[in-house]
Amino acid sequence: MDPTAVTPFIPRYILAPHVATPPEVARAALRLAGLGPGQRLVDLGCGDGAVAVLAAVEFEADALGVDFEPHWIEQARIAAKVAGVQDRVRFEQADALAVPLAGFDVVFLYLVEWSVQRVVRQALAQLRPGARIVSHSFAGDDPAPDRSVLVTDAEGQPRRLHLWVAGNAC
Ligand SMILES: C[S@@+](CC[C@H](N)C(=O)[O-])C[C@H]1O[C@@H](n2cnc3c(N)ncnc32)[C@H](O)[C@@H]1O
């Protein structure tokens, strides 16, 4: 079975409103997660797709972005074409909570505290040991992240990044 297969959906939960991660913060998050060439990344709630496109362009990763809003998926597909990485990046309209995660090396999140906690628990139950989840800004405390770092965005504002490594949580 294709581990990136997604099922058409009516989302039960809106996990976060749309706010984009700045590219320098996305870059720091993907570095923190140790994303490398040929690895597979999923952005759960991808918005305009910029994080997935950056993963393909700068990290040579294969990426999937999902969002329940069809206009974001249309825009994200255009962004992938413009960047010339449409062969490495796929965007699907889907419920982030329904995406099978077992085949991914890195899960990227920019949601809110309650939804990050829910998604992290769900992801850790599916990911192989050593796979990573990286979250921009928010983290629940159950499970607590393995690592949290502060980075500075282009406007000099601090941004927190959180990392969980599958197989490390109690
Ligand atoms: C804060 S934005 C993050 C966008 C992008 N990941 C980034 O960091 O730039 C959260 C996104 O999650 C999407 N979203 C919220 N609930 C969702 C759900 N249940 N399934 C799929 N996408 C969802 C929203 O439409 C929004 O685009």
Output the CATH homologous superfamily. Answer: Vaccinia Virus protein VP39
CATH class: Alpha Beta
Q: What letter string, H or E per element, gives the SSE order? A: HEHEHEEHEEE
The helix/strand class is: alpha/beta
Count helical runs. Answer: 4
The small molecules bound here are:
S-adenosylmethionine
N-to-C CA distance: 29 Å
Segments where pLDDT lies below 50 for 5+ residues? none
Major sheet strand order:
3-2-1-4-5-7-6
Please give the radius of gyration in angstroms. 14 Å
The tally of structural domains comes to 1
From the 3D structure, determine the CATH topology: Rossmann fold
Question: Average pLDDT across residues?
Answer: 94
Strand content: 15-25%
- Using the alpha-carbon principal axes, give the shape: globular
CATH A-level architecture: 3-Layer(aba) Sandwich
Overview of the structural elements:
- With 170 residues, this protein is an alpha/beta fold.
- The chain has one domain (23-165): Vaccinia Virus protein VP39 (Rossmann fold), CATH 3.40.50.150.
- The protein is 28% helix and 23% strand.
- It has helices spanning 23-32, 50-59, 70-83, 113-126; strands spanning 40-44, 62-67, 89-93, 106-109, 132-136, 147-152, 158-165.
- Helix 1 (23-32) crosses helix 2 (50-59).
- The protein is globular and about 40 Å long.
- The relative contact order is 0.19.
- S-adenosylmethionine (SAM) is lined by residues 11, 13-16, 18-21, 43, 45-47, 50-51, 66-69, 72, 95-97, 110, 136.
